[in-house]
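[SOLVED] Need 3D model of a two-part complex

Original post:
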Amino acid sequence: MPVMEFVDINCCVGPYYNPPPGLDWSAAGLLARMDDLGIAEACVAPLMGRDYDPWMSNVWLSENVPPSPRLHRMWTAAAHHSAEFPPPDALLEGMRRHNVCLLRLCLYAEAYVSRLDVPIFAELFDALAQHRVPILLDCSGALTLGATELEPVLQRWPDMPVVLSVAKIVQHDRWLYYLWEHYSNLYVDLPGYQCLGGTEAVVQRFGAERLLFGSRYPYFTPLQSMLQVVYADIDDAAKWAIAGGTARRLLSEVTL
Amino acid sequence: MNELAARALRGESLDDVLVVDFHVHYASKWNGMNIVVADNDEMIRMAERVGVDRLVVNGCILPDLGPANDAVAALASRRPDRVIGFASTNPYQHDMVAEVRRCFDELGMRGVKLHVMHDRYTTPRPIASYTEEWDALFAYLSERRAPVLFHGVVTEKMIADWPEVPFVCAHGVGSVETMDRMARYPNFYVDTAWTQNPAWAVTRAVDILGTERVVWGTDAPLVDFSHRLGVVLDTELTESQMRQVLGLNAARLMGLPLD
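Solution:
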């Protein structure tokens, strides 16, 4: 039987204020970890994207993560109205030029970080949906989102794949069931979905394509989510979809 | 990648490794949450898939602790191959020494679970303020050398005053400050449970407290066993240290055979 191929939808590299001890935060360091654990590909964002500056972090990523079939560049998104960040057309042109195929929008509780304001991001989401660019909503630092905030986005931009990365849903996840039931463009990465039996329940009710292997490296070791896939009580096709099949499909559908 | 991690990635059950989950709740509804696996047999089956040998189960999430302890004991009695019972107690519901003695002598339990959630809502006075009751309980546990798994409730003074009682701080690998402060007490231990505790926190706990004072726990049925297994298997620890954290330390605390 062929080895299951993992595609990590959510990892970061680059300098940060308090990196985990012993971390090699370079692209080479990430590739070494991927080789060690047998991860085929990874979508990689700048670690400083949230707490330093979105645009500067994107420049850093483009200069320090070389184009590679194994590393898919993921830029940090931000509102453009203050002229600190390119407007959507220019942003997508930059993404095209720099081989960037998805965006990460950091949504935390802190006052200095964006909220998921539809009027602010509507132009950007129009552009992303037009090109089927996935957006990873990173609220891993705090549980700030619910159906009230997410539903208008999923409803208005059905062609924009939304990958939700939350801190710890554990069992406070009933709102997600509602959204999964109604919106096929919602995906959730595994580090926030660690409920015992949760993987099996979601696969049974909504299909394996609604969960994605993501490690949230370097905070977590990728092995944690990999084992969640390996040991899940689901069939092999479902495991392959979660491990990387669905991520590969999403990336292949980008039309930038 | 170390050999244990490689074997786990192949989906092997780590049969030659004693794996003891020191932090398991009786599978039930709790806190109004959508507990997906609220059936104890199903929880045990899922633990077996990952190679967990023993589940140390407490009933502290159930509102009425006497019947909760009975339910845990019934489960342990039905599945003695997998389940070890811990008694849940607090000073609001009963005479703690009498209840824990009943749990140990009549129900075969091996330790005690204390949880800060018992201090909510209608508490007549802070749980830690029941000094005489706690002293009586810990005096009894001292005689038995029985471990306490605590989430809140236990103070530094209690740990200092009762050196014969092993106190295991639930979720403790996540707090450097606490581990630094408490490292001087040889009876202070930590477990690895909590969704946000990363692998490097386990390594850090071993650095601060020593390998023998870190025990593996998951918080099941809230959390997936396999996800938490990775938190130990992908560390810089040696295989020998991993084996201690995954099961040998917990077995020693409970006086189980070390195999």
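Edit: Strands of chain B lie at 20-25, 54-58, 83-88, 111-115, 148-151, 167-169, 188-191, 214-215.
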